Amino acid sequence: MKRVGLLTGGGDCPGLNAVIRAVSKSLLQDHYKVIGFEDGFLGLIENRYRSLSWDAVSGILQQGGTILGSSNKANPFHHPTQKDDATIYTDCSDQTIQNASDLGLEAVVCIGGDGTMTIAKQLMEKGLSVIGVPKTIDNDLYGTDITFGYDTAVSIATEAIDRIHTTASSHHRVMLIEIMGRYAGWLTLGAGLAGGADIILIPEIEYNVDVIAERVLERSRRGRRFSIVAVSEGAKAKGDDFTVQRVVEDSPDKLRLGGISIKLCSEIEDVTGLEARATILGHLQRGGTPSAFDRILATRYGVAAAELVRQQQFGDMVALQGNSITSVAIEEIGGRTRTVDPDHQLIRAATATGVSMGI
Ligand code: F6P
């Protein structure tokens, strides 16, 4: 019986279980045995896994998170071990590949974002057969138009903006909503547009606080006594550094962004004299049940990944280009970020409808 492994790496997002289900059900019907590693690459390093039988993957389509657990720290090339009360980092990639080989795995399907694809690429270079599935609410993965998880997160952030609108209007305040996305503005742009934000600030366009203040005051002069600012966690003023909430030393991407909305909130109050409030949406954006779009996309991705296994087309990540599912070489993806082109159609749609991009 042919055997395939599967893992979910990096930050979780809605739709992971839908992919696990689709890969497994598709391969089980072809008499493969599918096993799932627990907690991302950590499970592969520590040989912790479970069987993904038909029963194990039934009833999980609509569940958020991942039944396998995930980790955005685990890295076989940089694995922490305790030695004499000190933490040392070792390369245990050989052992990791040996674990997969001992289990008789034909390939490991790696469901994750940029960090996961970078590790998958390195393991591939050492001989492991891998297949990638693009996940992240940030939508910043190179090679695909849309990652699963993004649509759900846009809906959550849009609902938050809708709700903030009513209280902003009642109290005549400037309301800032801080949205995730790391160094890419897709999530803020999507939710800002859908939620009718007056000002949208993304990392790709460095803002000028005076321009923002003037837009708020101009709205006020026109009798619009409140303003909604959708601000990306990675947004920054021209020449400024990112606002860092914490540094996670043992993570491949150490910086966790957060807090720009609080800083900007007091700057806007100072310049305009208007009352302002900041709301940081945080991990709410990654939680809960996937949207119908993400369930469908995740299922299409999972089925396509299973097809790559059958065709033994290893080293590829499934992708959506236009409305077609295709695949791209993982070696082209790892380490690259797909950011928003400042001339993108969505930016033009925003400015054409009167939205300020803060410049
Ligand atoms: O990449 C997904 C993401 O949610 C980013 O939008 C955010 O910056 C980061 O992960 C948060 O990471 P953590 O879950 O470690 O706080």
Describe the model.
With 359 residues, the protein is an alpha/beta fold. It has two domains: 189 residues, Rossmann fold (3-Layer(aba) Sandwich); 134 residues, Phosphofructokinase domain (Rossmann fold). The protein is 35% helix and 21% strand. It is built from ten helices and 15 strands. The chain has a seven-stranded mixed beta sheet, sandwiched between helices. Strands 9-10-8-13 form a four-stranded parallel beta sheet, sandwiched between helices. The longest helix is centred in the middle third of the chain and has 22 residues. It is elongated, with a radius of gyration of 22 Å. 6-O-phosphono-beta-D-fructofuranose binds next to strand 12.
Strand percent estimate: 15-25%
The structural class is alpha/beta
How many DSSP E strands? 15
Using only C-alpha atoms, the radius of gyration works out to 22 Å
- Name the strands of the widest sheet in spatial order: 3-2-1-6-7-14-15
First-last Cα distance: 60 Å
| Helix proportion | 25-40%
Please write the string of helix (H) and strand (E) elements: EHEHEEEHEHEHEHEHEEEHEHEEH
- What is the CATH topology of the largest domain? Rossmann fold
Query: Given the structure, what is the number of helices?
Result: 10
The low-pLDDT segments are: none
Mind describing the biggest β-sheet? 7 strands, mixed
Can you give the mean pLDDT? Answer: 97
Shape: elongated
Q: Can you list the ligands bound to this structure? A: 6-O-phosphono-beta-D-fructofuranose
User: What is the C-level CATH assignment of the largest domain?
Assistant: Alpha Beta
Report the CATH architecture of the largest domain.
Answer: 3-Layer(aba) Sandwich
Overall structural domain count:
2
